[in-house]
Fold these 4 entries.
Entry 1:
Amino acid sequence: MPMRILLVEDEMDLARSIQAVLEGQGHVVDHCVSGQDGWVLLGSDQAHYDLGILDWMLPELSGLDLCRRTRSRGLALPLLLLTARNETADRVEGLDAGADDYLSKPFAMEELLARVRALQRRQPSYRAPLLEAGCFRLDLAAGQLLVATAAAEVCIELTTKEQQLMSYFLEHPGEVISGSRLRNQLWNLQQDPISNVVAAQVRLLRRKLASHGLASPLETIPSKGYRLNPHAAVLL
Ligand code: CA
């Protein structure tokens, strides 16, 4: 299940590696360097993060301070602390500050991914990697969208970005979702500066559905956004 992850890490090489590995798993990752910038992103309503990965030693605010602030704000997202420290007292301090887990540097990326998966499983909102609404079934493990029309079931291979977009629509069937909400949830806030990135991706997804003979279930609601009609699976 793709997650939106905030990574706060001031070692640029390590940050780039972590970001690449997580994005390779289909997650959307925002990265910032200072604890203060991390707090601005975590504490804002701009994006809702499913996971925070915080280095302990950061400029301005430490990862520990970030954990405390996040919890005192009442945010429940899982937090993974990265630390070069490995003393028992430090671990206790990290967990007491509100971290859910910690990882001592240096670590293997496989271990980071395993911790991330474990934290994701612990979440009450964890969903099985199969999303269903109306005639649509998205198998995230296989990367396939299955569409049941009156005539036949159509199986469509989706790219990672198409899966993220379709997941969001299937989690909010029939709801009008604004372009800016999609952009905030599914795109990296620092990268992808193209203003019409959402419209372009929606167009690509519609085109793919059409290439499999399906009329688009994605409606454009003028000046409001987009809506998935989960019952509109019709062959062209
Ligand atoms: Ca550091």
Entry 2:
Amino acid sequence: MTLVDTHAHLTAAEFDDDQEAVIERARQAGVERIVVVGFDLPTSRQAVALAEQHRGLGAAIGIHPNDAQHLGAEEKTALAKLAANPAVVAIGETGLDFYRQRAPREKQLEAFRWHLDLASERGLPVIVHDRDAHDDTLSALKEHAAGRRIRGVMHCFSGSEAFLEEVLALGMYISLGGPLTYPNARGPVEIARRVPLEALLLETDCPWLTPAPHRGKRNEPAYVQLVARRVAEVRGQPEAEVAAATSANARALFRMA
Ligand code: NI
């Protein structure tokens, strides 16, 4: 049984001391592919370097909505150039975060649209972060889609069932992570039951959102198996089936051989 962690921040400072050991532990746990996600320009560059060094790793490059105010002309030029690197498998993470709202909404929207355009130009999928911004996220995606389908994923999906139907209709994949394993995870459990298996991806969002029973400690890609187990449990489906389908979905979306 093999798995893909479609959202890992392996370039976060939390992994400075044991990045190699963490990647090795993931392999031992059957996590054969990992999408290493940048959240600013330096971590995007580091994600590309890491993916170039390791088989089975791909890089996602972008500026997180919480840092959207730092997306200036210089960063745009650098990211557009970096996007041509063959190790890059996605653009992001981008999107809208009206929960923390560290960057002004207008700036977040402008940055989100810019990332969507870059993804289209490069023929790459987009990794979307949406926190308390479902309506604006959906409007921006619909406007960008202009009637076509979008190649991308709603990472750590947290919306309603109605919102789920809307983003599925746009062609988006749905990714679930650690929060699904928490005791009061009613929303994510409902989503895990409802999302068609052919649209489902798994992730850790490590070093954050650590799944039970490791909650409170640092998260890492090996723990994506705990998410797979919980998805299988709530769907009443064999874990091997969930692993096979979500891995095939991830390979198709990110074009990771
Ligand atoms: Ni993330």
Entry 3:
Amino acid sequence: METITYNALEKKVLSYTPFDVHKLRRAYIYASKYHQDQKRASGEPYIIHPVNVAYILAMMNADVDTVIAGLLHDVVEDTESSLEEIEKKFNKTIRSLVDGVTKMTKFSSSNKKELTASNIRKIVVSLVRDPRIIIIKLVDRLHNMRTLEYKSLEKQQEKALETLEIYVPLAYYIGASKIKDELENISFRYLKPSLYGDISKQRDDLIKETTNLLNDTLVKVVGLLKKNGVKVKLEIRYKDTYSIYKKIITNHKFETIHDIICIKVLTKNIKDCYLALMYIHEIYTPINNYFKDYIAKPKTNMYKSLHTTVFGPDNRLIQFQIRTFDMERVAIYGLTSYWFKYKNNACIEMQKDLENNFQFFKSLKELDSTILDNIEFLTRIKQELFSSNIYVYTTSGEVIELPNGATVLDFAYKIHTDVGNNMVAAIVNNEAVSFDYVLENQDRVRIITDPNAYVPKEEWLNSVITTKAKNKITEYMKENQEKEDKNTKN
Ligand code: MN
């Protein structure tokens, strides 16, 4: 891998924002001084790592405080430096960012499991405080994964697994798909090297086999769209190895995966997306089941695009992903795309967006406010947030994200506490179902409520799996009990 120097970092940051160069340089000198006696597992000077982390952040157009925090992210954890000193020499924001990414080590009753759990909890809930902490942590992990070859086999597998369990879902939730894809593929390579090799080979062969054909297709599509006044930029993409693997383990054959070959169509505005779709469908026959309009109904991490799979030339299945340049930036960078959009205040916009638009954010807050034990918290986020989720619809067509195994009663509580408490019946895809009915992807759910008829009962607890539903049912029963007690006393 090419070595990133401090000068390259400085140049990179200057390329997108004017800033106080001395401050960045001071941070570099400060970190170099504290890390001077340390080496990476590769034998290189330790400072290479923070410089790379800062550089990756700069490639995302991160604000200067975040880049500096990237340079300083390991000094408090690994050296004699302190948060107080960082605040004095730099500023409060940088202190708070560095604090967020610093592991807790001093613990009264510290067994390893508890310590790991509390550290992961600290990272995950830092999203509530300042989303930039998660981003620094993700980039830190990314650089460590890129350089994992120098670690022992045991360490490699441990890190790869932890990355898939914790960091990949986090990256997914904030829409940082570029980081997510790279983390997944590296982890997969360490966890299942031979399978990784097999699938990569098949993928490489497919690329060789189809390159000419696809280049011809690009020319044809661009020509057609240009003739009709739609300006576009096209890119060829092949599904990455880990995503192919995920399809294969759910019973797909490599040959029949419908979106291995993808052509991205980038347009200036939304109208051109639909026009492009129309013209593409005119020359290639679409497969109805694979058409998705994520522009009208974005994914829960704010991803927007039109997807259509068509019978392309040579009868190959080709997926077209059609979106605007703005949507493309969100598709790649997610929440961090605000760094490209706003010079200042990007962080405030990120926070607003998280609170208003990202569904998992509320679930995360709910878990954090109700579960005290760190190990239980870790188990629950893995089950509820990080395992594969299902997506169902409300009657008004809103997409609701729930953990796998969630029931209609979980759905009701997810909509609103009152909807859960007053649920009397549920209708899924036009059929009445029981309270413990387990929802599936794409289900259309209607909850019927009656404020007078029913109240939550203890056995409802057996019909739910989400923390919110469990808490609300327990809460209701407790309040009711207290009321009854009072009444009896009177
Ligand atoms: Mn680090």
Entry 4:
Amino acid sequence: MRIEGPRYTERFGAVRIDEVQKVLELDSGRAGELSPYESVAVQKIEEDVIKDFEEKMLIVIPTKDEKLKLLEGVISGIPHECQILVVSNSQRKRVDRFKMEEGTLNQYCHFTQRQAYLIHQKDPVLAKALSESGYKYILDKDGLVRDGKAEGMIAAIFIAMMMKKDYIGFIDADNFSPGAVWEYVKCYASGFYMAGSPYAMIRIIWRYKPKIGEGVYFRKWGRVSEVTNRCMNSLVSVRTGFETDIIKTSNAGEHAMSLKLAELISYASRFAVEPQELVSIFEGFGGVLPMACKSAAKYGVEILQIETRNPHIHEDRGTEHLRDMLLPGLATIYHSKLCEKETKEKVMSELVQQGAIGPDEEPPKPQICPPPKNIDIQKFTKAMEGYMETRSALRSRGK
Ligand code: GDD
Ligand code: MG
């Protein structure tokens, strides 16, 4: 793969935010000597290097009642070296969609001879393991994991820690294009290779996110992303005193982190999770508030933003859903300890303009789950390890 090197890096305390890097070539040919120009402006990342990173990565697919054909397509796009974990919150009552997902995955893994795990978010064994590890923040009053994509993601971080993976990457299950999924993972691996710190996050930005109506319009920005990026940039600009538009991925659902970083940051419920990850990094390492971890601060936290070639085509859930996503995302910025009057006003004006809240209302406080760093992973592992074997798609076909 050939990717542009970062041309500019914005620094905020110990955080480095790299300018968007574009994918130049999906396949950059055989391994070989690089031209001098190559390592300065352009990075060629060899196949074997990418595979080395893929081997250390858990790819998590959060899913809730998605079409099985889409889920299977997404799985088929994930490079063979990666471990796959599907975290499902699909219905089990009227129609057992989870059972159907299990059947699809088992068949797929049988024929490709690859390993994948599937776990239900409401599985009581998972809830018990979380509780025993000391992390009850994502459990509801029934003692099971709450609904929400973020809740599934957090549970997956624990499973990645248990599996001793170095990296975790997320990919939504409603993607129509297996080729795009493949490219996301290649970008994650390349990003970790390029990152100058073991505390790194790779966030995907799409070249196009087509709108399919009467024809196809190759739109670049989602409406929610535009607004959230503006407010997130303001949060940084007001603190550094230099206006910036460096952040282009506040809502990036497709993103990956080193586990070292994943353990140190806090997570918001549901769809506010991605903006909150950035807010948490800025709070913990921006240098305005006390540093969240001294050794991480020494290396610095690096955020890479990579622009992919494949367009992003996913299920269209309508404008109501977009508004539901905007409010909690902006609320994480508004309620951050870093948020000054100027950014608060910007957030309010955007929310009122979009009709998400009234002029006299405040955005509701987000529900924040603390960093997983202090959990007892041994207790979690004890409760889960044997059980995960039974959640493996390959084994359950009798391998
Ligand atoms: N495990 C689990 N639990 N998965 C869920 C849940 C849940 O409660 N709710 C939704 N999902 C899954 C969906 O099935 C899908 O695969 C993925 O999470 C994202 O949900 P969508 O409903 O497709 O979200 P979206 O397309 O509007 O938003 C996506 O992109 C945004 C950026 O443009 C998400 O990834 C957002 O988090 C992201 O900000
Ligand atoms: Mg979607």
